[in-house]
Amino acid sequence: MGFLYGVLFFLCVCIIFLILRMILGPSIWDRLLGFNMISMKIVMSIVIFAFIQNASFYLDVALAYAILGFIGTIIVARHIEKGGDK
């Protein structure tokens, strides 16, 4: 179990660096990529937490969060592509 807690800690550190990438990103596309990567790191964290707790209902939460994150990224990308905020 110690290894899995280490992985969770590493994912949290990655999320912190990705937040910095979103803040300092020179373009809106860098910010969108940072958002998408943070979303996927959170999904990975939920899956690992489900394994640690031996609770399968967290996997449903992870799946729903992954779908919403993907749809959100697609919607924002289409908005930017059609001439939204640049």
Folded structure, characterized:
- The protein is mainly alpha-helical.
- 86% of the residues lie in helices and 0% in strands.
- The chain has 3 helices and no strands.
- The chain is flat, with a radius of gyration of 15 Å.
Please give a quick description of this structure.
The chain is 86% helix and 0% strand. With 86 residues, it is mainly α.
List the helices and strands and how they pair.
Blueprint: H1 2-24, H2 28-53, H3 57-81
Helix pairs in contact: 1-2, 2-3
What are the salient characteristics of this protein?
86 residues; mainly alpha; flat
Shape: flat
Low-confidence stretches: none
Pattern of helices and strands:
HHH
Average pLDDT value?
A: 91
Q: Biggest β-sheet: count, sense, barrel?
A: none
Q: Roughly what fraction of the amino acids lie in strands?
A: under 5%
Please count the beta strands (DSSP E, at least 2 residues each): 0
Structural class, by secondary structure, is: mainly alpha
